Amino acid sequence: MLTREPYQGGARKLVLAFDVGTTYSGVSYCILDPGEVPQIHSVARYPAQDHVGGHFKIPSILYYDQGHNVRAVGAEALQESVVEKAMDQQWIKLTWWKMHMRPKHLAAAHISDSDIPPLPQELTSTRVLADFMAYLFRCAQTYIEEAHVSGRSLFASSGRKIDFVLSHPNGWEGPQQSQIRQAAVLAGLIPDTPEGQARVRLVTEGEASLHFCISNMLASDSFSRVVIEKPGFDLKASKMTDAGVIIVDAGGGTIDLSAYASTGSPLSFEEIAPTECSYYPLGSVFVTRRASTMIKGYGSRFGATDYVDQMTAAFDQEAKIRFRGVDEPTYVKFGTIRDTELSHNIRNGRLKLQGQDVAQLFRPSIQSTIDAIDKQRVASNSHILFVFLVGGFAMSDYVFSELQAHLSANGLILSRPRSDTGKAVAEGAASFYVDHLVSTRVSRFTYGIDCNTPFDKKNRQHALRRHNMYTQVSGVQVIQNVFSIILHKATRVSETQEYRRSYWMTSVKRTGLLSLNQKILAHRGDAPAPSFTDEDRGALSTACTVYADTSKFARLLQARSGPSSTYYELKFDIVLLFGLTELQAQISWIENVSPVIRIV
């Protein structure tokens, strides 16, 4: 385990880390007492939980009534009495709802909303997330109050000072992060104020998993025995000195990949490649979906929706994890012992699936994961030796063995935690808050803005765009639609490092410069970023929008003489900070000789 220093804060604090997954979710927490060494715990008891998804997780399921009020959540939604009541009163069951929040571009383009159970028009994914997080908070409070002698006083004293760490897939960006923060407000976790938002920290699932692996795998005896003879591994310091590691977080809806290497300090790591987030056909939900399609296609008299739903649920909860390989059949329980149809391998309420057929359900996910790992290896700037597999899908011995066969043939060592891999993200998110092990990250995209630039007749690209040239009030000839790059893709960025470029705006009136509203664009294509925003449009999208009130500054501007009229000019900088898991954008300018910064 990691050796932590005693907490140096001046007051007691509670940190809650939420892992809201496509299929299962959980909560971990840390009680920070001044002078005490922090310890991370997981909520291990939930209402109506009976080993559903393990002790530490509950299914990400909600029931809403026809008035869109929450009626049942998590393991409670699987109780027979609740299911019966839901049918009688026509409650709305929501599963896989998190996938409605996914980015709709590139990696997510292979899956459409029609592939996911729909949301009622009156419910947004942000609202559902808020309701689910509110439930997780209540469960966490109940558990902590019951599990710790000082639990009740802890919540009473913490009041509105609880800090939250909320994890999300690697591929989620500004719009999704904004939805998460909005959901935290709707859930009543924080007030919608700058002080309230400061109590929320977002972390990618990949980085959270790294923290979990460092604590639970690098220091474990079994891992040490495997790597002790490998060059470049310092067992005493428990660090990788010359070899990198890829974290594969295999979840329900996505598989996230992140690559890291030690900076030379046993408690400091850096990203060595842009993170990856893959959707279709990787996540475990797609294995279940393929199983449902196969079962429907059998043509059995048990092909009615209710029977198929029972079989699919049984496959998802038991058979999928227990499957070992092509040499043994898999049995899916449903109905009663009187349900038999020998012509379709159904006997006494059990459907027999041949091993080779089940293996085909896994094949697209396994092959896509292998391809994603190979892609991450190529993108990494350090030699990759280790691959750590975490997440709910990592519990599958078949997935692990298939990945191990490929990776070992390529000289890679595949490992997974001995403890419940399903709690890796939640515990890792809490460790991210406490230990903060990653000091440098790699930008996933190229970021910049759409602007004008002075016309250069010697520039061939400018000459080709002479038709887009016009003369500003200042008399300067400019061309439009320039993609002005502020931060390039695959740039290593420390937490305190700024990337900035200077710009200016002109107007014949001061009122035209009272505010700035600038979109930050991200180029997500594999090809080099274009010079102009009307090129490669499909790979350019808005990452965020930064706004600043410049009215005070504008009123101080002095009029300038132009060719035909006077005008006003406002000079400012766009500043990007990418050292944390959230992109931060700022507008900065000099006002009365002092710099002024407005942060979004």
Automatic annotation (TrEMBL):
Gene3D superfamilies: 3.30.420.40. SUPFAM superfamilies: Actin-like ATPase domain. InterPro entries: ATPase_NBD. This is Actin-like ATPase domain-containing protein. It comes from Coniophora puteana (strain RWD-64-598).
